[in-house]
Specification:
Blueprint: H1 2-11, E1 16-19, H2 22-29, E2 37-41, E3 44-50, H3 54-64, E4 73-79, H4 82-92, E5 98-102, H5 108-118, E6 123-127, H6 130-136, H7 140-161, H8 170-183, E7 188-189, E8 194-197, E9 218-223, E10 225-227, E11 230-231, E12 234-239, H9 245-264, H10 271-284, E13 296-298, E14 305-309, E15 322-325, E16 328-331, E17 335-338, E18 341-346, E19 349-352
Parallel strand pairs: 1-5, 3-4, 5-6
Antiparallel strand pairs: 1-2, 2-3, 7-10, 8-9, 9-12, 10-11, 13-14, 15-18, 16-17, 18-19
Helix pairs in contact: 7-8, 9-10
């Protein structure tokens, strides 16, 4: 990974890249702590962290095989202050002319500090997507971790749905999902769990509150688990009791949109065409304006990462990408339905990593 990143840096005619985004540090080195940066140079890499992570950093880099002078991290430094960090990195940049920064991660204030104190004699060049592009294609070990996270979420959902007839609050259902995932081995929930019932189901990102789930409610459950740093993402919509004809039609349209998008999702497909396939089904049903978000996104070390699957996306889906497909329709007065799977894409199509059944009646 470090070697591929260096090649990408060289293609941009840069002398080095300052990697500041922690997800990228983890991806490139295996380090999981909360404070680190890399100065990625043509012939080696400087890794800097603070004293809290002295032993952890050495251990994790060794286990990941990224330490050592043979193309890996050849200099692991531990600092005790920001000033010491600045002085160390500045000294290591001697002789460098053009240094890339991760534009999406560096604030305006930090860029000014880097230009004035860290690299006063260098040209700082904003870069975008350099490590992100590498992360789009998942290695087998990454897929296995996402699939393990998805299996944890599947099991948690089965336990939670069984209690919806007991009229729990939305917050209680969310808590049950998150506790079940932790008991099953998740590091944490992948994001704030969404449990939206009745009228709240018409809010795409409703926060679980004190409303009690009632008979006849549509309930949208959107959640995921984290396993060894990798996320899963799934949404299921259930009806407490037997659905009405209108609820069933809404569910069927969203399901058809999901299936249409999944049929298009394969390596080489334009992400916008995946979105378009889902959107066409919903527009034909007369609910186009009620599908108010994109169809999906990449999943991995982050819950939202490239490629993004929306109508304005310019991405082409690559083999080995892990994406979500999550069309939804939200109708005030009736409620809402969203159906989401996390999928591994290859040349022949895609394979679902989330396996919970899609049953409307609970």
């Amino acid at each position: 990974r470090l070697s591929r990143a260096r090649d990408a840096v060289a293609e941009l005619s840069l002398d080095a890249l300052l990697v500041t985004k922690l997800d990228h540090v983890r991806y490139l080195t295996g380090f999981t702590g909360s404070a680190a940066l890399l100065l990625l140079r043509p012939t080696g890499t400087l890794f800097v962290t603070d004293g809290r992570y002295r032993d952890q950093a050495a251990d994790e880099l060794a286990r990941a095989g990224t330490s050592g002078s043979d193309g890996g991290v050849d200099d692991l430094a531990v600092v005790t202050s920001r000033d010491e960090e600045q002085q160390l990195v500045s000294a290591a940049s001697g002789g460098l002319v053009r240094i890339g920064l991760e534009a999406a991660d560096v604030s305006w204030a930090r860029q000014r500090d880097l230009a004035e104190r860290w690299f006063p004699d260098c040209e700082l060049v904003p870069t975008e997507g350099l490590v992100e592009a590498q992360r789009e294609v998942k290695e087998p070990g990454e897929v296995a971790r996402i699939e393990a996270a998805a299996a944890i979420a599947d099991a948690a959902l089965a336990a939670a749905v069984a209690h919806l007839h007991e009229e729990p609050t939305e917050a209680e259902v969310a808590l049950e999902l998150e506790a079940a995932m932790r008991r099953l081995g998740a590091e944490r929930a992948a994001f704030e769990t969404i449990v939206a019932s009745g009228p709240n189901a018409a809010l795409p990102h409703a926060h679980p509150g004190l409303r009690r789930v009632r008979e006849g409610d549509l309930v949208v459950l959107d959640f995921g688990a984290v396993c060894e740093g990798y996320h899963s993402d799934m949404t299921r919509t259930v009806c407490v009791g037997q659905p009405t004809a209108d609820q069933q039609r809404l569910y069927d349209v969203v399901g058809a949109a999901h299936d249409a998008a999944r049929a298009v999702a394969r390596a080489g497909a334009e992400a916008s065409s995946v979105d378009g396939a889902a959107r066409a089904v919903i527009e034909e049903a007369g609910w186009g304006a009620a599908f108010s978000h994109g169809t999906g996104h990449g999943v991995g070390l982050e819950i939202h990462e490239a490629p993004y699957v929306g109508r304005t996306s310019t991405a082409t889906i690559r083999p080995g990408s892990v994406i979500t497909i999550e069309p939804g329709v939200y109708l005030p007065g009736l409620g809402g339905v969203r159906t989401e799977d996390t999928l591994l894409v290859d040349a022949g199509g895609c394979r679902a990593l989330t396996r919970s059944p899609k049953n409307l009646a609970s």
